[in-house]
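The data are quoted verbatim here:
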Amino acid sequence: MAVPALLLFLHRALRVVVSIMAAGAAVCLALTGSRGPILAGLLLFIAIFFLTRRHGLALRRHAAVPCVTGLMALLLSLFIFPAGKRIGDMVGGGDASILNRLELWRAAGPMSFIEPLTGIGIGESGHFFSQWYQPERLNYSYTGLLNSYLEIAVERGLPALGLVLFFGFMVMASVWFGVCRGPTAKSVCANSRQI
């Protein structure tokens, strides 16, 4: 009788520890002040919460508490730390950084069709934009397009972008479809659905 009680205590203790870790990670993300990691953290907590729904009740119970804790800590820390002001500026449309990035990304489409098979060369996208595609009202010198996928398309060519996207899709598909495959994974997934 003591063993099930000990296991229940260990599961709850583990859930508390993981929740504290998720909250700490969320606060650290907010302290960076960078919108990309903050958005990635929000999406990660939401994705984990919903993706665990297809793998049984036990996994859902274990993932829900840390995900909700991390999500709430991230949202709360956005109000406490200066990163919240940057998010507010982004939503309000007053952030020049976002507007400059949109100019870069808008020009990436036509730039990728200059040399669609081979690209314009490694490290040349920012210089090429500054020389030929930058609006006259802006006077910045860029080193890149601030987006890895667009830089691959412009600098290495569209076939290289296709390969990167294909391999990324294959990794996600193997994780998505391969979670409950194999001799040990089947028993683990079957046990999690019974609980």
User: Anything to note?
Assistant: The chain has nine helices and no strands. Residues 2-32 form the longest helix (31 residues).
